[in-house]
Amino acid sequence: MTRVLLADDHAVVRAGLRRILEEHPDLRVVAEAGTGDEVLRALAAEPVDVLVLDISMPGPGVFELLGRIGKAHPAVRTVILTVHPEDQYAVRVLRAGASGYLSKHQSPELLVEAIRKAHRGETYVSPALAQSLAAEVVAEMADAPRVVQVTAAAPCVAPRRGGGARLPAPGSPAAGRHRRGWGRRRRRARCLPRGGRPNPAPRPGRSAPAGRWGCP
Fold first, then answer.
1. What is the pLDDT of residue 42?
2. Would you say the pTM of this structure is higher than 0.70?
3. Could you say which of 94, 114, 129 is where a domain stops?
4. Does residue 161 fall inside a structural domain?
């Protein structure tokens, strides 16, 4: 059962809304209010799940009222029902905490649907308003500055051109170690004669020719 508070400064409108909601067994009107102050008093006196609120009522304005309801009764969901067009108030009241926005020119079935969705914790908007909100989000994303995250490069190993063994990336610590190791291997290779084996040790009293036993 969804407990509903009807808030409108016209008694005829409240009576018509009550008759519409009474046709649905899962909805029950527990209170009515004709001003913003009466809304606050009714919420303090009676447990309410969904508030159906008109924008133009005597007393606190709709934005002040939504703020006070959000602080004092955070579990109450508010559905705005008004004659004002969506492009005038819809986005602002939704950002202020409302759970739905309907025009009084829409069908009663949409009001019932909005109340049920609000009670489930969802937000009701018309298809036209949903498209407008989506376009606004896309525009905000396009205007937002882009942040590029730069991370320090690890000492990775870069592939050699044409395939084959992988070589350290230029400028990395591994590249320096690779160059020093390659130089030592080249010097050792120059110290060896053809065939890769060292010459026999020199006889006592004789020195080996340069390039045969050791590097000059």
1. 97
2. no
3. 129
4. no
**For residue 29, what pLDDT band results from cuts at 50, 70 and 90?**
very high
30 and 114 fall within a common domain: yes
Q: Look up the domain containing 182 and give its range.
A: 175-200+211-216
Query: Residues, the chain, total?
Result: 216
pLDDT tens string 179-193: 566 555 555 555 555
Which residue in this structure is represented by tokens 């606050």?
A: 40
CA 52 to centroid of chain Cα atoms? 30
The answer as to whether 186 is a domain residue is yes
- Closest C-alpha among 120, 126, 93 to residue 107: 126
pLDDT tens, position by position, 128-173: 777 777 776 777 777 767 665 655 555 555 555 555 555 555 666 6
C-alpha to C-alpha distance for 97 and 99, rounded to whole angstroms: 7
**43 with 124, same domain?**
yes
Q: Are 190 and 215 in contact (CB under 8 A)?
A: yes
**b/e for 133-171, b at 16 or more Cβ within 10 A?**
beeeeeeeeeeeeeeeeeeeeeeeeeeeeeeeeeebbee
Q: Is residue 139 part of a domain?
A: no
